[in-house]
Amino acid sequence: MAGLIIAEAAIFTIFVVAYLFYIGKSLTGPTPREVLETPIFYTICLLSSSLTIHYAGKFLERGRRGAFLTLWSLTILLGGLFLFGTGQEWHRLIYEHGLTISTNLFGTTYYSLVGLHAFHVTVGIIMLIIVATFAVAGRVGSEQSRRVDVLSMYWHFVDAVWVVVFTVVYVLGR
Amino acid sequence: MQRVTKTLKAALHSFAFLLSCMTAAAAADPASTGTNVFAPQSTPARSILHLSTFVLTITGLIFVVVFTLLVYSISKFRARSADANSEPAQVYGSTQIELAWTIIPVLIVVVLFMATARVIHAMQDAPEPTNAVQVTVIGHQFWWEYRYPKLGVVTANELHIPVSDPAHPTPTFLQLLSADTDHSFWIPELAGKTDLVPNHPNRMWMDPEHTGVFVGQCAQYCGTQHAKMLLRVSVDTPEDFEQWIREQHQPAVPDERVAAGRRVFETTACINCHAVNGTVANGRFGPDLTHLMSRTTIAAGAALNTPENLSLWIKNPEAIKRGSLMPAMQLSQSDLDALVDYLETLH
Amino acid sequence: MSSNAIAIPGVQVEGKSWLETLHEWVTTVDHKRLGILYIVYGLGFLVVGGVEALIIRIQLIHSHNDFVSPQVFNRMFTMHGTTMIFFVVMPILFGFANYLVPLMIGARDMAFPRLNAFSFWLSAFGGFLLYFSFLGGSGLYGAGNAPDVGWWAYAPLGARAFSPGHSTDYWTLSLLVSGFGSIGTAINIIATVLCMRGPGMKLGRMPLLVWLYLVMGGMVLIAITPLSAAQIMLLVDRYLGGHFFDTQAGGSAVLWMHFFWIFGHPEVYVLVIPAFGFASEIIPVFSRKPIFGYPVMVAATVAIGFVSLSVWAHHMFTVGMNSYANSFFAITTMAVGIPTGIKIFNWIGTIWGGRIQFKVPMLFCIGFLFQFLIAGLTGIIQASVPVDWQLSLSYFVVAHFHYVIVGGILFATFAAFYYWYPKVTGRMLSESLGKWHFWLFVIGFHMTFDVMHIPGLLGMPRRIYTYEPGRGWDTLNLIVSIGAFIQAVAIVVFAWNLVISYFKGAKAGNDPWDAWTLEWSTSSPPPAYNFATVPVVASRRPLWDLKHPEDPDSQYE
């Protein structure tokens, strides 16, 4: 997983570099300052999901399957909320401000970067749901905690990437 | 026997390399109008050659030293039948030797880098003198557009610049732009190459020491006819250059004898792409044709500028430059002949 | 392989139908079989890529030739480059990694066998996808065939406006897919090396080949993904109307170049580092001495890995970066030559004082040493930026990188074939055919690639389907083309050797070369489980210790 994270970090780095490089270079169309609203609530959702998954893992190690499943499901919920928030923001950007991936450089780099991240969140949630399904069937116990940890590593990575994306898009980019 | 073969192989090697250097040197001819990197006719090309000689000498020395070590080691230490059952001394390394052969390369790199950096700055950061001739080069698929902003001239494919007297230099500074994909301007005897990248203006300069015609071609793959995007630069005496500029300023002189051809030109799709000063033709996608007959070649050097070639080019460009963006103009033979007669008057 | 099991007298072993054998191979997760699959796949594409090269060379045999149209020629050089790098050299090197790494560290398989198989089939699919473009590239527009944008697909040439149809999409997708396969294999290699070494095999006791594959794996993780990212951006531009590289909308063509070469330069080190590994295993055995300066060899490789991440823009010296950027990349490029040069000295130090046996693997390694030296020096010449302003984008560069890849990497890989073929198949390759292969290839190689430097110096740019007469390029190109055909003959000899020796070669036994690393302690070929008991090692050359108990390496390390 560490290897995969290194590789993924490299992909995200390139998209971040492209985003940074093109800040202020759009020839036409909406600018970040005009249309972006900082998604504080949904960011808090995603970042706290790191906490919930961390404690879920801890509970599982100690064999507390019930607590594990609760916190695990909460993680899924928080991740899902984040995706919902992203979708909501995109809806607003597209329909109220006319910003699409083909509008201008800002549109292209924004949707690509945030989209790539959202894609990784989605894949993560699917994996989390699979584990939750196994847990509901009673097949996830403390013996599986190492494997669950590997997935948690991925989830933490996705959150860490969001910190970077958030800073680049909503703080530096404006 | 093995030693002989090994040494022979080594000798073959160094001979091949020597041969290549000698050929290149022999091909060098200060007055040549070829494309020889070793025959510089302008300051940038000359600086590069001096630096190359320095770099080549150092790397050549490294080569000779390491090469000799290699040949020596594989010949001296080959297994002999006497040592069939014993192993040589198992040496694991030597700190002093390894230190030595780390430090020496570091020093060599420092020296090479200093020499390199000096020339980089001298060439790239050279200030532009006020009397420099300014040309804007715009790369197209697959031809060259030349504009002289201060002199008000627009032409295509054959560049004219004045020779530069070292006592009173009149260099030419080129601004490089592109209308479509990436290209590269390379005339080896005048300067190193610089790319033409869309949305990324570049700058280069040259100060040719002799008059004459210099050739080169596009060096950055730009599509199907990259190979035939040839460069032709005419370095003129200052007087000839002034004369050429004056001629380029003239609009096309209407000639009643070719009015039929001119009508064909102005009423078919020609004017969508081409321009002729003094007429309604103002297309910029293709080369400016106002002074077409002042050029030795057509289609960016793909063919000589003769009436037959001109006719063929218009009728069937694929025959001359397959994949170029010139369309086959579906003209009747009489229209075509009239058109060519008209074009022949565009001096 | 049929000799996976021990033959026990009196026991009937059921024969297998060809369908069963095929099924076994297709579903295998055994690192040895996957290694063989990778290598055979790579060899197949070597022939294809070679044919593309021969088509190029025939077209260029004299000026204004019309053996093929410009459109076909442009597809040929694009496919030749893409094929050779992604579907020949990478698979062959991954194949050797798969086969050798577990054996050399005393493991029974790679860390993630199913990921291993998945990565192979992903990479293989990429190759077939690329070649499907010959059939499918026409897409909806009747335009486009195989990709013809060069293997770098520079923007904006790769944009929809200049590349209609689907040819560029085949390029993009096939490399994206096989790139993910490469990442999977790299993760596997790293995990295996870090977590599955046998008892006693500390990092400092691993064979150098394993160290080099570890570094190569790390580089793959960091280097391939920038290309994947750039290709995703290209797809966004081509299909979603994005503007990453759309210069009309303010996008940057230079950005593509940076992203591509941030991948492209470390990629060639990814290719050469395993070749260094082969040389570092083979030269000691045929000089009968341990590698000179093992710790420095490791350190130099790691240094090369890091420094090579900082040199990429030396492919862009003509693009118009400012003088400070140009100077920076000049110094880093020259700097990476230092650890590389050190390695050459260490190999000479290994040979020095030895008792050299000129068997075929050693012949190829000696060729590698000579040629890599020259290749490295022509690289240093081009690192001098102003010199590169003349040499870049010309046949001098083409000669230089073929010198590295063919003269360096391919020679070392041939050495590896001759060295490890006995282990994989249980039979020796024919020494005499091997010598024919070697000498023919050396002659053809030098005829082509020594001479090829000269047209570059005389102004011949690359990627041109034809050239003007009267520039002095005609005769030189003729010689280059003849050399190419000689190399083709040598490859035929090699292929013949591979096939005929499988059936008629001398039986190899466990350790035909009297070598010292763990793979030579197993049978040839090894059983499916590799080692009956997991070996315990006390030094870098465990078999030397066994064979020379009076003077074991463990005493000195």
How would you sum up this structure, described in words?
The complex is a heterotrimer of chains A (174), B (347) and C (557). In chain A, α3 (40-61) runs antiparallel to α6. The two termini of chain A are 34 Å apart. Chain A has helices spanning 2-21, 32-35, 40-61, 65-97, 105-136, 145-172. With 174 residues, chain A is mainly alpha-helical. In chain A, 80% of the residues lie in helices and 0% in strands. Chain A contains six helices and no strands. The mean pLDDT of chain A is 92. Chain B is α+β, with helices and mostly antiparallel strands. Among the domains of chain B are: 2-75 and 96-124, no CATH class; 256-343, Cupredoxins -  blue copper proteins (Immunoglobulin-like, Sandwich). In chain B, 40% of the residues lie in helices and 17% in strands. Chain B has helices spanning 2-27, 43-76, 95-124, 238-249, 259-267, 270-273, 307-315, 317-320, 333-343, and strands at residues 133-140, 143-148, 153-156, 158-162, 172-178, 183-186, 194-196, 202-206, 212-218, 230-236, 297-298, 303-304. Chain C is built from 16 helices and no strands. With 557 residues, chain C is mostly helical. The relative contact order of chain C is 0.10. Chain C has a single domain (18-556), classed as Cytochrome C Oxidase, Chain A, CATH 1.20.210. In chain C, α3 (70-105) runs parallel beside α5 and α6 (208-239) runs antiparallel to α7.
Brief digest:
Chain B is built from 9 helices and 12 strands.
Relevant terms:
heterotrimer; B: alpha+beta; Immunoglobulin-like; five-stranded mixed sheet; 9 helices; C: mainly alpha; Cytochrome C Oxidase, Chain A
Count of alpha and pi helical runs of chain C: 16
Total of domains of chain C: 1
Indicate the mean pLDDT of chain C.
93
Q: Sheet bearing the most strands of chain C, described?
A: none
